[in-house]
Amino acid sequence: MKPASKPASVRTTLLTLLLPSGIVLMAIAWIVHGLLLDRMSRGFVESRLHDEVAFLELQVRQSEGQLEQLQTGDYFEKVFHHAFALNSPTETTISPDFWAPVLSPLFSTDQQGAIRVRDSSIPGAPSDILAYRRELDVGAVPIVIIVAEDMDVLRASQAELHVWTAIVSTLLILLLVAVIWVGIALALRPVASLQAALKSLQEGSISRISVRTPEEFRPLVKQLNQLLDSLDQRLERSRNALGNLSHSVKTPIAAVRQILEDNGRAIDPALRAEMANRLIDIDKQLEAEMRRSRFAGPQVGKSAEPVKQARDLLWMLGRLYPEKSFELTTELADDHRWPVEQHDLNEILGNLLDNAGKWAQECVELQLAEQDNDAVIAVVDDGPGVPEQQLSSLGTRGVRLDEQTPGHGLGLAIVREITHRYGGHLKLGSGPTGGLTAHIHFPKSDAGNTD
Prior knowledge:
The chain has helices spanning 10-62, 74-80, 100-103, 151-187, 189-203, 218-261, 269-294, 306-320, 342-359, 411-421, and strands spanning 83-87, 92-95, 113-117, 129-138, 141-150, 325-330, 363-371, 374-381, 425-430, 436-443. It starts with 9 loop residues before the first helix and ends in an 8-residue tail after the last strand. The protein has three domains: 10-171, no CATH class; 212-296; 297-451, Histidine kinase-like ATPase, C-terminal domain (Heat Shock Protein 90), CATH 3.30.565. The chain contains ten helices and ten strands. Strands 2-1-5-4-3 form a five-stranded antiparallel sheet. Strands 6-7-8-10-9 form a five-stranded mixed sheet, with helices on one face. The model is unreliable at 294-301, 399-409 and 447-451 (pLDDT under 50). With 451 residues, the protein is an alpha+beta fold. α1 (10-62) runs antiparallel to α4 (151-187) and α6 packs across α8.
């Protein structure tokens, strides 16, 4: 198996991409510079040669074609800085003299304007010239004027300029490398901040990443924070599910234990079947909590029979609290259904009734009704009740107002959480005899569709 190659660093990747690209671009610019420089220099030389030919033409016309009257020699050489040639039927003037072998053949050609002569092998004469030729008649005398430039000298100057351009380009490439390196270092600085934030997150000193990052890194930070939120929610749901599970099975187990510990009562087949049903309920509650830990919210299409479930729970709690009376008040039929999951309704009714059974003096009343298309559950006990200022803290997970009474402070919290998932609300208040009253309303039309 081919071993996985080590991933390249961002610096290496950027330098690998940008540095060759910069070198290629500089090379292209250097080549284009050479071509443009040659073209511009030729145009400039042609323009100067044209002007000097025009000047000589003016001098020739003023002398009426008498070339011997022109001030040639040093005068024209100082004025033009170029080689020139004048030719008439009677006289020929070429300056400087060593250009004569190159310029003389141009007298007999018919070409006008710029003429390029390359690769001349005449000893002592330039090998590459650019000449400008003009033929005119002064009176009846034909005269040829030629002005020429040594392109070898010009190319030497261009080559020097081109070398300096290459040197400057190399320096610019080195500067580009430095700029890229500094730019990469500055661009990656937020990565170091993000790394430090992740380390602080791992150590527990922060709970979320809040460092300032460039626009390109913000989606990454957002996704990390969303992942942390999701993990926290899963952890909280798992903790709640564990607490709910332990609280859910406590009451059925206590009822079965109460029956088994009653030595004065024989376990007849009916009672044995009822105990088996209670154990089945425990198994269902375990399954429900395991399912609830995987899914958030109720499942669409599920329904429960509140009257039947209420009677089963009241029978079980009557066994658990034999000295207290549990009553059901309802006008609903036994087979009437509410759009609530069966185990969720068991949780609501069981926790409310168990809580009321702990505190009641003699009687607990459960009311099931429908009002304005809402499902209504009310549990009233005749216990000591709860002071008005403490009602708001009831239903908070883990909060118990009396540490002497057995329990974990989870019953009302579980009821409030399940009710909220169905879009309903739990209201706690004082009953007519001073005990605690718990009212639950949730919309039948929305139940089962709330996340």
